[in-house]
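FAQ: What does the model actually see?

It sees only this:
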Amino acid sequence: MIKFQRLGIEICLIIFITVLISSITDLLYTKNVVFYISSIKEKIYYLLNPSEVTIYFSNGSSAPFLEFFLKPYLNTIKILLSSILLTLVMAIVLSYLYVFNNVAKYIINVLFAIAEQLPDVLMIIIFQVLILYIFVETDILIFNVINTGTTSIFWLPLFVLSAFPITYLLKFFILYLNEQIEKPYYLFCKAKGFSELYCIKNHAVRNFLSPALLTIKNICFLMISNLLIIELIVNNYGVIHVIKHYGLSNSTIFLFSILLLFGPFWLFFRSLEVMIERK
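And it is asked to produce this:
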């Protein structure tokens, strides 16, 4: 119970610090401390009454922020969750093949060497050029490489966003597996006639949860930051679209966009950490 109370205090502190940081733009713009304090009070009020947050458009019309934000938010979350799932599945499968299959080990090492040299921005350009080349040669467009309007492209951000995290997480899994298969409990499990997959799944994974959770959490937050950059490059209709067009001129919109994007993931991982610590 005490740990969950501390979690509640952490949440309040993080939200308050985010409010302070997001209000700095108002201070820099007005150079008025009184206005800065007023901006902080206004944000706290809107956090307690989120339904009253309104977004204003260039044509003079307006709409409730949460209602307007839903579509771009879901576009971003769909790509992010799909990328996280793809990263986890690929890292688990490839790490098993790497440790127990020599051919797969050689291929993965080659892919490692290539992926580590390519920054995300260059990967986006390579994907776009390759897809456009295939389209020119075959008249087949595999998937869109840049977005227009209020729609959202999915596959290009998904693949680009997953590339580096798969490499990073795969290295972690391989290091862990190589360490665990030398442990006495694993050798004893194998000696009793159980398969390698059974020994890993039922014994090694138990020792893996805590360090893996920290690594996956760091990767997830890195992926969120990278996704914002990728969305900006491909002009996706997601959270970065809202921040770019409305959040930069309205610090309250910026605050809500950041909290709704990062907040659920932080709360999820922090709650898992608390539950693991209780055990």
